[in-house]
Structure formats: C-alpha cells, structure tokens
Amino acid sequence: MIVLQKTGYIAEAGRCLVMQANIEGRSVIMVFLDAKGKYSRAADANRIRDWLDKEKLPRRTQTVQKDHD
Q1: CB 42 within 8 Å of CB 21
Q2: Could you give phi then psi for residue 39, rounded to 5 degrees?
Q3: CA atoms of 21 and 40, how far apart (whole Å)
Q4: Cβ atoms of residues 57 and 7 within 8 Å
Q5: Exposed site from 12, 15, 28, 57, fewest CB < 10 Å?
Q6: Helix locations, 1-69, DSSP H
Q7: For 1-69, where are the E strands, in sequence order?
Q8: Burial code of 15-44, b = ≥16 C-beta within 10 A, e = fewer?
Q9: pTM of this prediction?
C-alpha cells in the first residue's frame, strides 16, 4: 500500500518522486530521479501501485506448533 508520495524538482536531480509504501509490513522509501517528462512521475507511481496490487506479496508468518495431549 502506498502511504505517501511527493513530487519535486531540483536542478541536480531533475523531476523527482519520493514515495513511501508498506510492503510486507515494512515501511519502504522509494526515490525516483530525473523523470524525462512532465507526466513521467505520475506514470511511475501508477506502475508501482499496479505492481504492488498484482504481486499481492505474501505476509511473513510465524508458524507456532502446539503440543497435543
């Protein structure tokens, strides 16, 4: 799930996108630098969102064995 995204521009890095997502219960920060076009950042964000939705990454689970009497 994408939690936060912010676009920006600086001369050194060009058009940028910073995105925070939760993947398998972990907070992940992604930084996309030097987008080629005005709408490239939005397209990148959509591709990441679609990838996260399609992957449906499995949650890490811990198996607990119980003794039976």
Answers
A1: no
A2: -100, 0
A3: 19
A4: no
A5: 12
A6: 40-55
A7: 2-10, 14-23, 26-35
A8: bbbebebeeeeeeeeeebeebeeeeebeeb
A9: 0.64
**Which of 24, 21, 22 is closest to 58 using CA atoms?**
24
CA–CA separation, 62 and 41 (whole Å): 37
pLDDT in tens, 3-61: 888 989 999 999 999 999 888 888 999 999 998 887 888 888 888 888 888 876 555 44
Distance CA 41, CA 39 (A): 6
Contact 43, 10 (CB under 8 A): no
